[in-house]
Amino acid sequence: MNSDWPYRLREHRGTLLALLAFVAMFAIYVANHPVGLNANVATTAANKGVLLAIVAMAQTLVVLTSGIDLSVGMVMVLANCLASAIVVGSPAATALGTLAVLGTGLLCGAINGAIVIYGRLQPIVTTIATGAVFYGAALALRRVPGGDVNASLAEALTGQLPGISVPASLLLLVVLVLVVWLPFRHSATGRAAYAVGSSELAAYMSGVPIRRAKFVAYLLSGLLASIAGLFLTCVTYSGEASAANGNTYTLYSIAAVVLGGVSLFGGSGSAIGAIFGALMFRTIGDLLFVFNLDPLWQPLFQGVVLAAAVCLGAVRLLRVRNRLDLYG
Amino acid sequence: MSLFVMQGVSKRYGGVRALEGADLAIEAGRIHAVLGENGAGKSTLIKIMAGVVRPDAGRLLLDGRPVAFAAPAAAHAAGIACVFQELSLIPDLPVADNIAISNPPRRFGLIDRHAQRRLAEAALARAGAEDIHPLALVRDLSLSRRQMVEIAKALARQPRILILDEATSALTAADVTKIYAVLKRLRSDGLALVYISHRMHEIVALADECTVFRNGRSVASYPAGTKSDSEVVELMIGREYSAVFPALPVRPSETEAPRLELRRLSWTDRLDDVSLRLHAGEVIGLGGLDGQGQRELLLALFGVLRGTTGEVLIDGRPVAIAGPAAAKRSAIGMALIPEDRKTEGLMLAMSVRDNLSFAALGRLATAGVVDGAAEGAAVARIMKLLAIRSDGTAQAASSLSGGNQQKLVIGKWLMMAPRILLLNDPTRGIDVGTKQEIYALLRRLAEAGTAILFYSTDYDELVGCCDRVLVMYDGRVRRELAGAEITEHALVSSALNIGDDGRHAAATAGL
Prior knowledge:
The complex is a heterodimer of chains A (about 325) and B (about 500).
Chain A: H1 5-11, H2 13-32, H3 39-64, H4 72-86, H5 91-118, H6 123-141, H7 151-158, H8 168-185, H9 188-198, H10 200-205, H11 210-236, H12 243-259, H13 271-290, H14 298-313, H15 324-327
Helix pairs in contact in A: 2-13, 3-8, 3-11, 3-12, 3-13, 4-5, 4-6, 4-11, 4-12, 5-6, 5-11, 7-11, 9-11, 12-13, 13-14
Chain B: E1 4-13, E2 16-26, E3 31-35, H1 42-49, E4 57-62, E5 65-67, H2 72-77, E6 80-83, H3 95-99, E7 106-107, E8 110-111, H4 113-126, H5 143-156, E9 161-165, H6 173-188, E10 192-196, H7 200-206, E11 209-214, E12 217-223, H8 229-237, E13 260-267, E14 271-278, E15 283-287, H9 294-301, E16 309-314, E17 317-319, H10 324-327, E18 334-337, H11 341-345, H12 352-357, H13 361-364, E19 365-366, E20 369-370, H14 372-386, H15 402-414, E21 420-424, H16 432-447, E22 451-455, H17 459-465, E23 468-473, E24 476-482, H18 488-495
Parallel strand pairs in B: 3-10, 3-11, 6-9, 9-10, 15-22, 15-23, 18-21, 21-22
Antiparallel strand pairs in B: 1-2, 1-4, 4-5, 7-8, 11-12, 13-14, 13-16, 16-17, 19-20, 23-24
Helix pairs in contact in B: 4-5, 8-18
């Protein structure tokens, strides 16, 4: 048997490229930062990056099944508003509140999944509609920004790890990868989700549980989006039903997924790639800061990087020999 | 007692009868060949066995007990594995993941990658494909290698019955040799094998029993070797249907340069050294089994394929056709009626009028603005010429019947008055009346000087409509038939690549 290495590299190429690109950008950022990488700089950067990374993980799960979830940002906003009302008080009340927030995320995901699978509607329309509904619920909870969150929970999630000056949010991200992503990736259901995204017909012919795979993908997507909402509450100590915020995170999560090497056609890529895509997307903004460029340039630069990444992904089309395959 | 029996199985798709009272009995330790021409019901038969479609009537018995398969997973569980003609592999997953896809080995609820690796290696070895790396992505493998993975995937389920549907059609000669040995070993292991192939020499080499299908019925079952190839062909085609075809005119003169000439056209491994000369006023048919390169030949002419080699000449002058837009320019004047009218031919949601105008918009427009009056006149002319039945021209194309939709696709290209008309199986799935209108139309166009190249899976059509027929096999033109030589018997024998005298030409074809 030949060495496994070339094949493993091929399979994880998108994720590895995202990792390398992020490391390169982050190195430039740290090297040019006026005060260097101290604990406070790292924690602030990490909190911003981790928030988008969690939303990007949520998006990845759905994109892998060749769907798209335009409600992730709104689930996050809804969870944020809910958390600012019920994740307060005694440790027991906080724990109950947290469970309720996560349960709401699961419910949102279940609604999306049920409509897409049993209503046979396109994911893009379904999630625009449900996203509006989730936003409406958030508005009903918080007409004006406000609320609070249990300070020790917020401190634990957004501060630094005791003893070592590493941002706690990075540990949260690692835990989510270990507890949500890797089990999914290595379960039969997760395998089925990849199969459905790559070729739904071949998946059906192979006796793969298509419906279960899609449902679990939407379910976990809702859960992760609500965790992002909880984390946002811990960062801001308040809840705000902001449509702009929700839409921005939805669109950025798609950008992060693409930068992370996940195919928008489904079936290929990894949430770990999407995490690095999200961190990369955030670093672009920070790079402008250390080079003293006007922050007004930020959207333009993010757009250029995103367009470049999409171009790289399209290189394979140059090798297509039957032009009909371009339109299939 | 037979291992698996199908009794009186019937299946209809809409009004089309795919299977009608079909019977089949399969024994363990035997290779059972299923034969029949295009559309005889073989594919439906195995889809029923594999649980992909459910029969309307009839019984399935496994070990003498009635069974029903609600989904492919139920057939898998009963020990039936199928290697499909259209591949059922997931392109973005590695080979090992694909082999274990229906029931991956698990440990603590998660997939056990080491066990999966061992399982995949064992299955690949059993299929004679040890050289395929279990971690390679299916996307990166050649068609022949993918087919070997497909076979390994079926074997990994430890089936009692293994169905191979045209499993060798995509294989290279080296892989075919391996597969022969593998299948014989599986037979001696006690598996029941159902083998569907159009290649007579393969059936002679492998089969123990044969069943012939025709028009959805099982017409004969016999032990292999008890009938000559010629008798088998008679069983396959002996049918009563015959359409009315317009009389063929006098053959056109061949003194001038052919309107379309191909010299040694090749493309990847699908087209191999195809040459042809098509004159104005001539109708040339492309025959042969489905998927022998006919579709690719038409696409290559229309400029859709990249990287073709060889020469294309229009009116004796070499041209390079870069795509459909170039092909339809007036100097070339080529039109292609595609295979799938719903996806490649029509914009179903748009109106009849818009659909008809698309290909000719350039000619109907002045300075980029479409001349509504000219468009209306041209559309009315085509609607009348083709007798398209529709409630005016504003209704959506999707509301027309299949036959009228097909006329719409043809009419769309007639709007630009093509000099060369390519048709890809234009009468598939439409009613007899419309078929005959299309035959008459083709003949009228030819008389008016259009050069027509026409692929059909219906042998009657080739006999009735064409001045000459080129029979393709494995991407090459194996035989050219002209005039009275074009008979159904000759078409079927050359499509199966056996000589008229029943000898196996395949041996010389490098298989």
